[in-house]
Amino acid sequence: MTKLFKLIAVSEGISYLVLFFNMLVIKPSHPELYKSLLFPFGMAHGLLFISYVLFAVMIRKVQNWNLKQFAVIQVASLLPFATFYVERKYVKNA
Q1: What are the angstrom distances between the C-alpha of 15 and each of 9, 11, 40, 69?
Q2: DSSP state of 65
Q3: Distance CA 26, CA 67 (A)
Q4: Whole-angstrom Cα distance, residue 60 to residue 55?
Q5: pLDDT for residue 12 is more than 70
Q6: CA 22 to CA 14: how far, in whole Å?
Q7: Does the chain have fewer CB atoms within 10 Å around its N or its C terminus?
């Protein structure tokens, strides 16, 4: 389950960056392409975000995260690049 959480953490971070790229680069130059890409990338990111949060709750005991570490891991789901940091620093034995 820990390996799956690592995969979800990296995938969630990539999907977050893809949404930012779509919004900041593609939208100004190609608004029609932006609209067609928004739903599939947005849906994928939403599912990965929910999976990240749920898997973090499920593997909290296995990884022996205290409350402060768990809060950092949950807040990381809201910040760009932070899930990559979590995957490297906090997830052990995968």
Answers
A1: 10, 6, 10, 23
A2: -
A3: 39
A4: 8
A5: yes
A6: 12
A7: N
